[in-house]
From TrEMBL:
InterPro entries: Exonuc_VII_L (IPR003753), OB-fold_nuc-bd_dom (IPR025824)
GO BP term, pick one: DNA catabolic process
Protein's name in the database: OB-fold nucleic acid binding domain protein
Cellular component GO terms held in the UniProt record: exodeoxyribonuclease VII complex
Start and end residues of each OB-fold nucleic acid binding domain: 23-75
Domain of life: Bacteria
């Protein structure tokens, strides 16, 4: 994966690399999960819960944040 250091977002940077592999959201999600588990094992994250929404299905959606970053989170309802 290539990173580009720029002060403004350039959409052409994303579309000009014809050799860049395209992943589905699921593929990328599984890759990230595997990479984190391989590097860190079990991970605990500490932060402030923000914007908690509990859906009719029982699933919970929220953000976990600190002073420098925000992670969007999902907790599924166990059946």
């Amino acid at each position: 994966m290539h990173a580009k250091n720029t002060s403004s977002f350039d959409i052409n940077y994303l579309t000009n690399e014809s050799n860049t592999k395209e992943y589905t959201v699921n593929e990328l999600s599984l890759y990230i999960k595997s990479a984190i588990e391989h590097q860190f094992g079990i991970v605990k994250v500490r932060g402030e819960v923000s914007g908690l929404k509990i859906a009719a299905s029982g699933h919970s959606y929220f953000s976990l944040k600190d002073d420098k970053a925000i992670l969007n989170a999902f907790v599924g309802k166990k059946l």
